[in-house]
């Protein structure tokens, strides 16, 4: 499973919202370092800064959870996400590491896994892909209501976020809210989402309805 954000991760530690002392955030302050933080949404305008980090800390081996590059695997993910808090691919890799190893703490990570999502959201609250990745991670942890909240935010920010639409449909199916599951399924399939799993689940449950509001125009058939 290479990507949590690409299509669907069919698919514990909570993050304190207040600081522990003197107003400091439990998950660390975002600013105050000599390099970064940089917004991953602006990566195409910050190619040099991105290359510095990805060449030395977020290599293919790190992304695929094989081994660290400049330090431990956790250390390289921490550095990448400290400099680029909303680095989508690094967040995906971190979520996959947590799921694979069934842990939220790793050597080299300064904070628990969910802190890195907290930091990404604080840094770029309008980044829909961060919310989508986080929603997938929460769903995998069985925290369905929290996952729904994140995915709904993602869709409000980016209505054509097909991954969020599909994942949210799956979550509503789990919650037996079949009307909403159908709604989000139809929206995802109207945007050419390729996986038939959600539709098949609804058909098997006798709940599938093709909604004309989201059907493709006949000229596109």
TrEMBL record:
Signal peptide: 1-21
Name of this chain's protein: TPR repeat-containing protein
Spans of repeat TPR: 128-161, 162-195
Superkingdom to which the source organism belongs: Bacteria
Cross-referenced InterPro entries: TPR-like_helical_dom_sf, TPR_rpt
Keyword Membrane: no
Keyword Signal tagged: yes
Keywords (A to Z) from UniProt: Signal, TPR repeat
């Amino acid at each position: 499973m290479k990507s949590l954000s690409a299509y669907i991760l069919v698919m514990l530690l909570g993050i304190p919202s207040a600081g522990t002392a003197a107003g400091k955030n439990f998950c660390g302050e975002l600013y105050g370092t000599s390099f970064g933080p940089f917004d991953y949404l602006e990566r195409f305008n910050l190619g040099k800064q991105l290359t510095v980090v990805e060449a030395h800390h977020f290599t293919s081996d790190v992304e695929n959870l094989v081994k660290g590059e400049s330090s431990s695997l956790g250390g390289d993910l921490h550095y990448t996400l400290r400099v680029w808090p909303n680095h989508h691919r690094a967040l995906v890799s971190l979520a996959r590491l947590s799921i694979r190893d069934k842990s939220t703490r790793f050597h080299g990570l300064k904070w628990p896994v969910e802190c890195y999502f907290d930091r990404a959201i604080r840094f770029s609250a309008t980044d829909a892909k961060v919310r989508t990745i986080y929603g997938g991670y929460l769903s995998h942890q069985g925290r369905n209501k929290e996952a729904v909240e994140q995915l709904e935010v993602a869709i409000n920010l980016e209505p054509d976020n097909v991954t969020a639409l599909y994942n949210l449909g799956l979550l509503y199916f789990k919650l037996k809210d079949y009307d909403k599951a159908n709604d989000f399924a139809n929206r995802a399939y109207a945007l050419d989402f390729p996986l038939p799993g959600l539709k098949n689940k609804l058909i098997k449950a006798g709940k599938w309805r093709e909604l004309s509001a989201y059907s493709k125009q006949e000229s596109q058939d």
